[in-house]
Specification:
Length: 233
């Protein structure tokens, strides 16, 4: 497996590369945003996953991430950064990141997150794509459809919504959603699941669906049709 590492801190970059090499990954490391931009957008490099520092010089990591997604480069991306405020996390995840790891972090946790992302479920075949009420998924275009309206989804949003659509009107625990979406039992950044629930609720409103993602306090979430008692919290 080949990983692109974009990190401008020489000490951290060297340590990450050494650890990942021990884990038998092939790692291309770069500390400059401009060079990293070219590496990330060159499909011939054949990367399976990217670790991108948000605060790179010349071209920042968020710009690189946006460019990758606009070019339909859908490999998993983990943002690694010292910017730990909630709004920064939301911005990164909303622009296509699959995970967000705040510095400082343990190498064991980074490796666990990488393993979780590379084990993620394969894309659904069109004939097996789940649907419920007015919602359906287009695996080829990675979009949500409601009637004549469409909404683009990030890879993680697509996987999470697939879990809900495969078990509509069923209360799903946080643990179940995390395991099915990220395929990991390792600790996750606090609020990651909640952030993605927030994003999916926005997508459902954008397409005008009759469906909502409702919270059941202390238990989890459920995808159901709107009614007078349904509340998003």
């Amino acid at each position: 497996m080949k990983i692109l590492l974009l990190e401008d801190d020489p000490y951290l970059c060297r340590n990450i590369k050494q650890q990942l090499t021990k884990e038998n990954y092939i790692v291309d490391a770069c500390g400059d945003g401009e060079e990293g931009f070219l590496l990330a957008l060159n499909r011939e490099n054949g990367y399976d996953l990217a670790l991108i520092d948000r605060m790179l010089p010349v071209v920042d990591g968020l710009t690189i991430l946006k460019a990758m997604r606009s070019k339909q480069i859908q490999i998993p991306v983990i943002l690694i950064t010292g910017m730990s405020e909630l709004q920064h996390k939301i911005e990164g995840l909303d622009n296509g990141a699959d995970d967000y790891l705040a510095k400082p972090f343990h190498m064991e946790e980074l490796c666990a997150r990488i393993r979780a992302l590379i084990r993620r479920p394969a894309a659904l075949a069109p004939e097996n794509a789940p649907a419920f009420r007015d919602l359906s998924l287009d695996p080829a275009r990675q979009t949500l459809r409601c009637g004549s309206r469409f909404a683009a989804l990030t890879p993680t949003e697509f996987r999470l919504l697939s879990v809900f659509l495969q078990q509509p009107e069923t209360l799903l625990s946080r643990e179940h959603l995390i395991q099915k979406t990220w395929e990991t039992a390792a600790p996750m950044e606090p609020g990651n699941l909640d952030n993605y629930i927030y994003f999916l609720r926005k997508r459902l409103r954008t397409v005008g669906s009759v469906c909502v993602l409702s919270s059941v306090y202390g238990s989890g979430y459920i995808l159901e049709a709107k009614n007078d008692q349904t509340a998003e919290t």
